């Protein structure tokens, strides 16, 4: 034991002497096939570390602790892993369900909520210890369990989510974590597939797969219930096949306009959120998957489902048309902007690369190797409602 | 009867029509990633159901190939016939039934 003490002391002093690392410009890249994640520095544009043992990441997403030290990785297999961005290591890991789709962090940063397919529902954990705080089965129709999608954090210590099979939106209030309160909105539309919350935390909008349009909940006026947006759009048209489900994310709101993927149509829909009316349907190269506004909302970047996933299109927010089509490589799965938007990072799965573009010149800046990258998440998300 | 004969013919050519090695690699990648987008990389299911051998037991090759080629109305399963022919769909069904191959 005596021997250990001087060694410990030596290690500690070494650490103290090392250059302190900040986490505000770091990010996590999911490498889906190997169940790994890379920690990257977005300023130096380089890999810092590789974290293994994250389970099945066929579908994965990441949220960050408010101190930006920890990344919480939600895997397909129900795994919830807390990754230490300073220690380059897994801090804690649990497998909390059989099959899950995503998660969110609470307004105050104390809770992590996970949305599960099997068993259908939401579980809430302490962000510190990953101990279970609340278990909310998504029950409908006398005990059936629905898959849960579109889980987002909302102001007032709330989480909002949608029930894919039940066609419902639930608002979970965690002000008293021992007795969570649930408000249910029924008949919101068939098969909500994902949802977003506006950056101000006011509007929760679920996209519908089973019928046209979107379901809108104004969290400032919950007593008014859920309203339908564009319920008639494309109703009589033949739907094109959808080879990958579109995703909705908070950054699809640019000023007064909401940009969303049409479903079964190769279009991005522009909706004026003052009247919730269609402004324009912008024709695109394929079925849009992610439709994301640059942080200043001057551009909207769109990637596509198979077989058009080699392209990315840039929409000019001023004239609402495609201004540029890029071909970054094979299978572009995800995009992430730097916090103020001068760069965008693209995950190009089949080329095993991350491609970084200058968003002003649309020129390529660099490529970084990554094994089957599927998702890119920067720590600046820590301070964004809904991300 | 004529239909039956045709079916027999089709299925016997299917056995003969194993995709080329290059094509097999493309199909395996497609199975892993594009099918995997909904059914999971490990095919344990996601938005779409599990495609593990026990989940497919009791469903005929033809039914499964039809599902791949034509999709399933009322669900999120799209038709793949634009990208995959019947032989390839049957080959994929065989891969699903025998994942270690």
Overview of this protein structure:
With 387 residues, chain A is mainly beta. Among the domains of chain A are: 146 residues, Methylamine Dehydrogenase, Chain H (7 Propeller); 83 residues, Thrombin, subunit H (Beta Barrel), CATH 2.40.10.480. Chain A is 4% helix and 49% strand. Chain A contains one helix and 34 strands. A four-stranded antiparallel β-sheet of chain A has the order 3-2-1-34, with no helix packed on it. Chain A has a four-stranded antiparallel β-sheet with strand order 4-5-6-7, with no helix packed on it. About 3% of the residues of chain A have low confidence. By secondary structure, chain B is mostly helical. Chain B has a single domain, classed as Cytochrome Bc1 Complex, Chain D, domain 2 (Orthogonal Bundle). The longest helix of chain B is centred in the first third of the chain and has 19 residues. About 12% of the residues of chain B have low confidence. The interface between A and B is medium-sized, with 29 and 19 residues.
Radius of gyration of chain A: 21 Å
Number of strands of chain A: 34
Task: Domain count of chain B, please report it.
Answer: 1
- Percent of residues of chain B in beta strands? under 5%
How would a textbook summarize the main sheet of chain B?
none
pLDDT below 50 for ≥5 consecutive residues: which ranges of chain A? Answer: 4-14
N/C terminus separation of chain B = 35 Å
Silhouette of chain B: globular
Per the CATH scheme, the topology name of chain B is: Cytochrome Bc1 Complex, Chain D, domain 2
**Helix percent band of chain B:** 55-70%
CATH superfamily of the domain at 99-244 in chain A: YVTN repeat-like/Quinoprotein amine dehydrogenase
Q: What is the CATH architecture descriptor of chain B?
A: Orthogonal Bundle
Q: Specify the CATH class of chain B.
A: Mainly Alpha
Number of helical segments with 4 or more residues of chain B: 5
Annotate the secondary structure layout.
The complex is a heterodimer of chains A (387) and B (101).
Chain A (H helix, E strand, L loop, with lengths): L3 H14 L8 E6 L4 E6 L4 E6 L9 E4 L5 E5 L4 E6 L4 E7 L3 E7 L5 E8 L2 E6 L5 E6 L1 E2 L3 E2 L2 E7 L3 E6 L4 E6 L7 E5 L6 E6 L5 E6 L5 E5 L7 E4 L23 E2 L2 E5 L5 E6 L4 E7 L4 E6 L5 E6 L7 E5 L4 E6 L5 E6 L5 E6 L4 E6 L5 E6 L3 E6 L9
Antiparallel strand pairs in A: 1-2, 1-34, 2-3, 4-5, 5-6, 6-7, 8-9, 9-10, 10-11, 12-13, 14-15, 15-16, 16-17, 18-19, 19-20, 20-21, 22-23, 23-24, 24-25, 26-27, 27-28, 28-29, 30-31, 31-32, 32-33
Chain B lengths: L1 H15 L4 H19 L13 H4 L4 H10 L15 H12 L4
